[in-house]
Model the fold of this input.
Amino acid sequence: YAQSADANFKDMDLSGVGAPTPAGSRSDVLWTAAYPNINTCSGIIENASVVNEAKPGTISDALIAEARFFRAFDYFMLVQTFGGVPLDLGAGELKFNTNAVRTSVRNTVPDVYTKAIFPDLLQAVNDLPASPRVTGGATKTLARLYLAKAYLTYAWWLQNPNNIPTYPAADRVDPDGKTYQYYFQQAYDIATAAIADPGN
Done:
């Protein structure tokens, strides 16, 4: 935080000068921004094939891969901040929603990682180009590095060395039965692959 910073900065700085609380932190800014982004990405992912059938080449594979990357990125930011978050915005899990809804159900942390973050980032690693589609666009290396970070974070969550509670309550068990050691190894493998082949 800087000289004129208020609690919005000091609380989230985590340096000890402030503390994030439900009343004082501005985590709502992330929540408010992430879900429209997620829904837009889901719309691109879900409707790209229909658009490309009508007008071939309208939406490139790289743009669809970018949508997958950014949907995973937003879910990753949300799960780190809030724990389990909703994957269903009203039309079904990871579906594009066009109807206003006033209810939601929070998925567990393992659901968010294994149903949303990992599949989207793995697909993004496969489909993103080594060089960006546009200046500043997402690349294969970027997706690899975020996948490594997500693997690390999920492995730590599974291991839970500090006995930190989670919300909603969930057993710290991977749905596919993989251990935290497996995910630490995946993080290492993906990161070293990105370092060995960083692109331009």
